[in-house]
Amino acid sequence: MKKGEILENIVVEKLVFWGKGFVRLEDGKVAFITGWAVPGAKVNMKIIKKRKDFYEAQITEVIEKSPLETENYDLFPGAPWMNISYDAQLQIKQTQIEESMFHIKKLQEDITFLPIIPAPEQFGYRNKIEFSFWKYISHRDDIRQEFNVGFHKRWEFSKVEDYDTCLLIDAEQNKIYAEVKQFCKDSGLPVYDQKMWTWFWRHFMMRKMHFSWEILLVLSIYPDYFNANESEWFDKIQELQKIKNFLINLSEKYIGIKSVYITHNWKKADILIWDMELVYGDLVIHETLLGLTFDIGPKSFFQTNSQWAEILYSRVKDFFTDFQADQQVWTVLDLYAGTWTIGMIFANSAAEIISVELVKEASQSWLKNAEKNGITNMSFVNAKVEEFLDTYISQGKKADLLIIDPPRAGMHPSALPNILKFWTKQMIYVSCNPATLARDLEFILKNSDYSIEKVQAVDMFPHTHHIETIVSLVKI
Ligand SMILES: C[S@@+](CC[C@H](N)C(=O)[O-])C[C@H]1O[C@@H](n2cnc3c(N)ncnc32)[C@H](O)[C@@H]1O
């Protein structure tokens, strides 16, 4: 098969990692398919890349819809699985988790897979959303459209899909988004040009916490002050003041808005957070999870689905209590601690909790959060887990429970042998990537006498391919 070749009447077998379609072809190789693949659909597809062991293909035409597709749906940026019924989405995710353990099942046959926990809400579940202002429809072909704001297109980062309503946030958030979008459009100021690095609108981020209903806004601009000559300064200041006035008026209209920032980003880096100016309200907003309260600022990392976070964290705690009923736990190592939330829910069950996290900035605020919740038995180590473990073990220190929640890339290869040097009877591994989870579990099973007690998938982001999984590993 050659690059560019069109294959006709191909039936998509299943969905695999990152929501790509999968099919085994006549030559024995497999193809990973982009472009709204749904298992069971009959499609024509074009080979876009030829690799040593597989092809990458793109759907060119759907010949027959999959029986899993719902009749009435709108395809929506950020929710690529909208066309698949929610029951089928859950089934696909459950199957993916079980299939990702293919090699592990050869090491341990009797793995208990608990049924996936569905999301409490299928729409409006995000407490944080980020929109990009964008000029190009295609960077490569230099096709522009003056004003776009929305999400980057899946698999085509150089495009942003403009839209008016986002199904992943609630009605109030949509109204605020609509007003901000209209204001920016009516201002006559241009959208930041990523090719020419010219001003003005860059990003809009909104947080609305699920339980407190408090809202934080960040509007990011590329102000171009530096190129302004003296006579233009007055206009620039006026311009900025108009934006601030708009944001202040908006905050008075929507009482949930408690904190508003403008960020002045004159760097090329396409990031939201840069030089921040508080233009309205407080520095932080608040959220409550499992009876703990958190201060959340524009830079804080916080789980994007609060209801789901409660479910995930409770399950982690349940996995612990189910196994540890009569075990004394002195020291918990909370590895890849992020917001420290997992560590905090163990505060009453252990003598001390040590949270290890790479990003210092976020963690300093979590120290305050722990104090605010009356938790005094937590300490924080700002380090790479792999380096922390080397030192901790060489000092002969012990741990009774390991909580591991790494980023998508999974654990660093040098950290894996080290976690096996503890005498802990249980480890709880939380993962957002089934592929790296399976890789790390395989290492653990091959090199220790741990076995997998149970595996639980949790659906945090309906209508997307994302899956979160909790695994309890125990030594009997
Ligand atoms: C999936 S998040 C963990 C979330 C966290 N358990 C929570 O609930 O908030 C992964 C975290 O690992 C951190 N991280 C990434 N690589 C790391 C490393 N090598 N050592 C320590 N932390 C790391 C990231 O900054 C991120 O906060």
Looking at this protein, list some descriptive labels.
binds S-adenosylmethionine; 7-stranded mixed beta sheet; Rossmann fold; 8-stranded mixed beta sheet; 476 residues; globular; single chain; OB fold (Dihydrolipoamide Acetyltransferase, E2P); alpha/beta
Compose a concise summary of this entry.
This protein is an alpha/beta fold and 476 residues long. It has ten helices and 23 strands.
Structure description:
- The mean pLDDT is 87.
- This protein has 3 domains: 6-69, OB fold (Dihydrolipoamide Acetyltransferase, E2P); 88-121 and 307-474, Rossmann fold (3-Layer(aba) Sandwich); 128-296, Beta Barrel (OB fold (Dihydrolipoamide Acetyltransferase, E2P)).
- The longest helix has 24 residues, at 230-253.
- Helices cover 27% and strands 32% of the residues.
- The radius of gyration is 24 Å and the shape is globular.
- An 8-stranded mixed beta sheet has the order 7-22-23-21-20-17-18-19, sandwiched between helices. A 7-stranded mixed beta sheet has the order 10-9-8-11-12-13-14. Strands 1-5-6-4-3-2 form a 6-stranded mixed beta sheet, with no helix packed on it.
- With 476 residues, the protein is an alpha/beta fold.
- The chain is built from 10 helices and 23 strands.
- Bound molecules: S-adenosylmethionine.
- S-adenosylmethionine binds next to α6 and β18.
